[in-house]
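In this section we walk through a basic example: taking a raw amino acid sequence and producing a predicted 3D structure, encoded as discrete structure tokens. The instruction is simple. Fold the sequence below.
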Amino acid sequence: MKKSIFIMLILNVLLGTVAFAECTYNGEKHPEGTIIGPYTCSDGEWVFK
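The resulting token sequence is shown next.
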């Protein structure tokens, strides 16, 4: 495991955040789980649900 990934995982645990991916919509980044209309940000992609 790369050192930078390991450090990011430790920080996520310490800070209590779990979002790893972001999706971009109209030039703005949105965290994992964001819902816009019928789409949900999942693994860095907008998924129709």
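Looking at the output, two observations stand out. The longest strand covers residues 22-25. Residues 18-49 form one domain. In the next section we compare this with other chains.
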